[in-house]
Specification:
Distance between the termini: 86 Å
Order of helices and strands: HHEEHHHHE
Structural class: mainly alpha
Number of strands: 3
Number of helices: 6
Shape: globular
Strand order of the largest sheet: 2-1-3
Helix content: 40-55%
Strand content: 5-15%
Length: about 160
């Protein structure tokens, strides 16, 4: 028994559509994996995840990128690592890219490294961070020079 050419053509069309439909989901998984990888190797967790360094990176992923109450004090005052999950929860992907390209926060944030990332890298970081959902609390507010921070700080030379 041979299949009618119209049925064969229809079957191929369905297979092509199925492949197209599966493609973005797989691409999405790849983007999330890439974002997770970039966050780890770029050192985002080092400051933006509580106790990441002291725990040798063994922090539950549900706490990743929730900011930290550890202050970074120097001639600029005392800064705190932003809760990136709350920040990105309020931004579109395009807003995040614009923010990443134009931000210039106080030290010790290496904003110049973020600016050097490709749009694809920034989109992957955004996708992964958003996949974690909003979590944690806002980081403490900036403390100007000459004022004492309330909690623990890493003191840079003056």
């Amino acid at each position: 028994m041979t299949a009618h050419p119209k049925f064969v053509a229809a079957a191929f069309a369905l297979l092509a559509c199925a492949g197209t439909l599966a493609g973005p989901a797989e691409a999405g998984k790849d983007q999330l994996r890439r974002g997770r990888y970039l966050i780890q190797v770029a050192g985002c967790n080092d400051c933006h995840t509580p106790n990441y360094g002291p725990s040798n990176g063994q922090v539950d992923e549900k706490l990743w990128l929730t900011g930290d109450a550890l202050g970074w004090a120097g001639p600029w005052g005392t800064t705190y690592a932003t809760n990136l999950r709350l920040l990105m929860a309020s931004m579109s992907e395009q807003q995040w890219i614009r923010h990443a390209r134009n931000m210039r926060p106080r030290p010790p944030m290496p904003w110049f490294n973020v600016r050097a990332m490709s749009d694809a890298d920034l989109k992957a970081i955004y996708a992964f961070t958003r996949s974690l959902g909003p979590g944690g609390s806002p980081a403490p507010a900036y403390v100007p020079p000459g004022k004492k921070a309330a909690g623990p700080v890493v003191q840079f030379p003056e």
